[in-house]
Amino acid sequence: MHCKHNKLKLGVISLFILILSSGIAAAQISDKYMMNISINGNEFKFANHNESKTEGNWIYLDGGVTLQQPSPMKVTYNGVNETSFSTNGNDVYMNMNVNNYTDHTIKYPFDTHQMYVNNSQDDVDIQFYGSNSFADKKASVFLLKANSSSIIEVFEGISDGSITSFSDVEDKVTVSSKSNSSVVLDSNGDLSYSFNDLDAGNYAVVIVLNDEPVILTFTTFGVMDYELDTNTSSFVTSGDNLSVDLKLKNASDTEYKYTAGLMNKNAYKIDMRMESNGQKDGTNSILNNEMMVDGFDLVGMSISDMNEEDLRSRSVDVVGSNNMSNTTKTVNSNQTTLNIDTDNLPPGYYTLLLEAQKSEDPMVAFGQKNVTVTSEDSCENVETIISEYVNIKSGESVECNYGKGCIGSIECTPNVDMGNTSITIEYLNNQSSNVPANISGQVYRNANIWIGSGDVPDDYIENATVSFKINKPWLIENNVNKSSINLNRFVDGKWQTLPTKIVDEDDDYVCYKAKTPGFSPFAIAGQEQKEETGVTTTNPILMVGVLGIAMLLFLKRRGE
Description:
The protein contains 6 helices and 39 strands. The protein is mainly β. The strands form 7 sheets. Strands 1, 2, 4, 6, 7, 9, 11, 12, 13, 15 and 16 form an 11-stranded mixed β-sheet that branches. Strand 6 and strand 7 (90-96) form a beta hairpin. Helix 1 (5-21) packs parallel to helix 2 (148-160). The longest helix is centred in the last third of the chain and has 20 residues, at 540-559. The chain is globular. The termini are far apart.
């Protein structure tokens, strides 16, 4: 699913990325700045950003409705830190405050973002948390209103060198009358500011210094026409349809296009890697392990004729087809019901993304919910779900490490390409409802392990192992010998005991590793130690004496 409320946000982020990856930058400029660009002698700088919520030069939004955004959101650059070139008659020089050909990562520190509705009377409150290097500086706050075509113009302007300053960016978009060129940062380099009575649309806030050409920061947000009431279940079994009821509050009955999509939270992230040798044809960007920019060209898309289907197709490539499912419906009504197919979705936690559009306005409402997709086990039997999102390629070993639960890691070598998918552990309260036969012995933990939606045949993988640990107090309380513990797999209608060995031990846990030919329902179990009965323990000295007396009596009888 392509979410249009993120189109501007991703567009501005991509603009920033394209600026960076055009030929990146030197380590000798001040630590206050990330990058310096000079075009035909006109210079402007970007303030440094880091993971600090209070000193990182980020804008935090308040008011409106809080939404979970992709997490993590990070950009890693590796390449040259200084370059110069000419394009369309413009001489361009760039340098950046990073080490040459060394990973430099910027991570956005906030997990949430705000969405607003123009009839809700909510102010758009911004809090700029700047570096104290900018304390008491005079600044301007620009509120830009833009659409997709204006963002594309900015893309092309950066690419062909026709944009030579921030004022050129302003020329491509609408500068709101609510912009303010006379604000002063406080003694911490921070700023509080509010916008009110905003019309529906996509907006960007940009803060720049007045006395020197420095872009401190920017962020984006959307103002919707209507609120979107949503009614749906928080659980769905993989293979069933998720029914979602939608209603646009205070909206007239006209033609709307409704879209609903489920996205695996492991795939709901932005992990961008950029590499550049300082030349356009040597500049590449990879998003979530998927090539997006190759030689400064967008892979699979053209900026000038970019359309929704292109974006949707690339979204599927980035997220992985088995980590998302969506549906659309166009009706002449302010309410409808959508049914989302979950056949190919692996068990896990999902973000339900919802939007409504009409022809003259690309998006008029947006919503978000959390939904859990379980396997065929009942929702009541699933205690928790832990997933790791990986790019599975044939012949390349995969290792997933899990931060909680008794199963610490899963390793395997796939024989086929599966793309971006997840390896999921479902911890169960009781034995899997997919298993008709009870396992013998004392069960420590029941779990389902799935690759993707769980339909991966055994011959698709090899050298699979599961590492797990058992709490020693449980062994004592249940009178189970640690050496009797095995990982058991239910397959072909019966339990199969897997080769399991002890690999480590400390004061609290015994650690094991087991080999498995595939993934399905599992149980970690051991055998209770049986106490021997009817055996009398005899003192050895007394036993010798008894035997001696018996021998004397025997010899005496023979003599008689």
